[in-house]
């Protein structure tokens, strides 16, 4: 039983972990901030405004010591949501455990380490796919030999569903990732064939459970059957215990709503039941989001509520005392078979492309997810998929939980970023620079040799006092960096512009506005400033704007305000839309505004979207932002229409509705 936690600083997160353990948590699930996840030191330009926002900053060994101060790692099961820098964070963790006197062979826990889904959903990748798979392979080989109880990779279908995957796609693409990684380990020569069973036994999965109860439960049964088949037939694993499908769950965050957020509690409970009621497809670990995650960062009390939901099920109900309640169900058997058949067909298609890495590099997988997500959003907007409080049953009583919205979420003190920067500067000042330089040179030399496992060089870096940014930039020198396909260009039209429909009206407004401005097309830049890689919302805005007749400029994730402004000026756009879900909007959005004005761009409205608390939204508008959109604004077509209105307003044109009325009167 875990809650995903960490924020502000290593010291504050340590205090939070101790409180959570005292409340009955049976493991830790560490959230790292975006600079740590993407291999930047806290004082890097791209880390500005992101330090400690969505997790804890860990810049060096000293931070890791502080993070687990007073927590015996030999007795603690620790899950670390870390991917591109997984090897580095595991090395820091191991060194701290050694300093505590722990037997590293007894360490238990998980490094997420599924880099493939980073290219498709979360966006915290650093290196190209080939070198990234090598880093994962090296961690797996090292842990099997030295940390035999550690799960070196968590194949994450969770984030695929967040990016729009259907159940069939979620099963298929996660399984393709597992096949790619297992093939890489087998072919690396680092693990003898007779020990491949030990590798398979340490592979775990991290799965999403949505609110469609029967479908989600059957998905897990299909997952288990397919994993057993693949590991037995493709890798010859004879021991059934090693073939066991081991998975943990974070129930769905995509379906959490800002509107009537109290409804999220029953959604969370329903989703948890889908992965606990069926004994033959039961999760080994569960972490639940908080009811208010669509509003902002949850408080400790909100996380406690989610923990108590699990404890009531485990200790008060009798649900865990019986065999599988669904054995013999024709409905469950048929649905499971349907999902299994669909997943196997999609797996075959990806393997025909050469596997999951070519499917990532070609843009196929990303385009499939963007299309599925667009189709889902279209069904919600059309009312085909019901979301209580959003597109039906919208009448509501005042919510006492959100009377004071600013108090309903956790606030990260901006001063904590300065404290982290001061600590980083102090760390650099007291270490042995010669030892640091030597460790980094060894790391780069080993990276240049394809057959050398990089864990030992990484451990040497950790002990020498190397920082997170220094480790990753040493490898960037050798491996290079990677910008993943956006999937926007290949996404099909999800909403038809039917005569008399909303999209048709918006298309007319876009065309008329472009004509009045004397330009061929309206041009909109969709930008992702900072390190927030959750691009689902930005992609959907880009796709719908394209379908409404805009020329869309979308360069993907991880851009500085300077780069966004340079692109806006070069492309001569009519609107800049900024998407941020990490909480860095208060610093990055005004920065873009100021730079646009300094560049002499006065008539281009700036729109902001993301998880933006109400008070922050008002502050952004006061700073000059034309409009702010949050999860409650679920109709993307309506958003595009409002953007057209803002373009007209900025260019002193008559509002579209009034202009349309005037034209029709003529």
Short description:
By secondary structure, this protein is an alpha/beta fold. Helices cover 50% and strands 9% of the residues.
How does this model look, in words?
This protein has 666 residues and is an alpha/beta fold. Among the domains are: 112-396, TIM Barrel (Alpha-Beta Barrel); 488-663, Rossmann fold (3-Layer(aba) Sandwich), CATH 3.40.50.280. 50% of the residues lie in helices and 9% in strands. The protein contains 26 helices and 14 strands. A five-stranded parallel sheet has the order 1-2-3-4-5, with helices on one face. Strand 7 (203-209), helix 10 and strand 8 form a beta-alpha-beta unit. Helix 20 (502-517) runs parallel beside helix 25 (636-650). The longest helix is centred in the middle third of the chain and has 23 residues, at 330-352. The chain is globular and about 70 Å long. It starts with a strand and ends with a helix.
Topology:
Elements: E1 4-5, H1 10-22, E2 28-31, H2 34-38, H3 61-67, E3 77-81, H4 86-99, E4 108-111, H5 116-122, H6 129-146, E5 150-151, E6 153-156, H7 158-162, H8 167-188, H9 196-202, E7 203-209, H10 213-233, E8 247-251, H11 263-274, E9 285-287, H12 300-315, H13 330-352, H14 356-361, H15 364-381, H16 415-430, H17 433-448, H18 455-464, H19 468-479, H20 502-517, E10 523-527, H21 536-547, E11 551-554, H22 561-571, E12 575-580, H23 585-598, E13 606-610, H24 614-623, E14 627-629, H25 636-650, H26 656-665
